[in-house]
Inverse folding.
């Protein structure tokens, strides 16, 4: 019974706190292209999250296509969210050979 009441008030809170947000999400979405800032973030995440299990691979060691597959298997290992996954990918492929 207590659980039900709690769930009820949680839903209530959610709907209240969501109302003012709808105006915020009406903003134009950011462009899909990566900014220098995101690439810099990606570098930091790469250097911190990817050397836990092995030495940092050289970004230039793999092609951008190989990095897609590598990131698909390594991002979950490093517990990256989708955004971080994207930023790290953007960083490694931004490094010029
Ligand atoms: C939880 C441990 C762990 C973390 C964190 C991790 N890796 Fe790995 N990585 C591995 C293991 C184990 C292998 C070798 C076996 C394999 O290929 O799955 C590997 C292999 C690799 C390889 C070689 C793949 C190949 O095909 O030659 C690359 C490149 C790589 N990791 C990149 C990364 C990057 C980039 C990150 C950060 C996003 C990362 N790893 C985070 C465990 C990890």
């Amino acid at each position: 019974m207590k659980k039900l009441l709690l769930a009820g008030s949680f839903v209530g809170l959610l709907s209240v706190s969501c109302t003012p947000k709808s105006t915020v999400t009406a903003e134009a979405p950011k462009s899909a292209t990566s900014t220098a800032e995101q690439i810099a973030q990606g570098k930091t995440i790469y250097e911190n999250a990817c050397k836990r299990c092995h030495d940092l691979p050289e970004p230039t060691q793999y092609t951008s296509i190989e990095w897609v597959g590598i990131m698909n298997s390594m991002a979950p290992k490093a517990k990256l969210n989708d955004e971080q996954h994207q930023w790290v990918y953007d960083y490694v492929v931004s490094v010029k050979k």
